């Protein structure tokens, strides 16, 4: 399991302890990686290191300050993870890690198990943005999943090794599903519970669930890039040779 983190001192203890509880019950071998952005200004790093001293399965992985973006954090976690089954979620405690057990019956049959929110506990504007985002993904990429961007997912390492991800923002989780589907990997959707954030504040949110125009523009650019990659591979070849 890995968890991207940025100023999550108020949440990270529970994240680690919940992960330990679930993994000790369901896995013979495991690791818990906290992918922490070096630009964090609170004591998240010290908290993680204190857990590492008592549990060698807990490890702090630093994301360089000049290598920012939650998408980069996901990519670092995916590429650093060493076991065949890679699970990730966010560090804000908006999910119940016990729901991980809902994935277990599908481990052998599917390459990606993607959680979707049974009931989304977000501000109204965030819900509307999510609805529009998912509608566009279904429209342009013919995706038939409930939610393409929920940060509660298990992916096989063979999938990670087979696809190349480029996104810097949270779009990377959508990019993963799109490219995995194009390569014929089997994807399963499973409903999971969603809660209000326990502590801290969302990184890209301005107010009441509204995202900054800069973030929206960046996400749009990344989705256009993904669309060109999967729909017009020759475009990638031309641009890479310039």
Main attributes of the structure:
242 residues; alpha/beta; Spore Coat Polysaccharide Biosynthesis Protein SpsA, Chain A; three-stranded parallel beta sheet; 8 helices; disordered C terminus
Describe this structure in words.
The chain has 242 residues and is an alpha/beta fold. It has a single domain, classed as Spore Coat Polysaccharide Biosynthesis Protein SpsA, Chain A (Alpha-Beta Complex), CATH 3.90.550.10. The model is unreliable at 237-242 (pLDDT under 50). The radius of gyration is 17 Å and the shape is globular. The chain contains 8 helices and 9 strands.
CATH third-level topology: Spore Coat Polysaccharide Biosynthesis Protein SpsA, Chain A
Main sheet overview: 4 strands, mixed
- CA-CA gap between termini: 39 Å
Classified by CATH, the class is Alpha Beta
Number of strands: 9
Main sheet: strand order: 4-6-5-7
Structural class: alpha/beta
Low-pLDDT segments, ≥5 res: 237-242
Distinct helical segment count: 8
The CATH superfamily appears as: Spore Coat Polysaccharide Biosynthesis Protein SpsA, Chain A
Order of H and E elements = EHEHEHEEHEHHEEEHH
Going by CATH, the architecture would be: Alpha-Beta Complex
The percentage of residues in β strands lies in: 15-25%
Report mean pLDDT, rounded to a whole number.
86
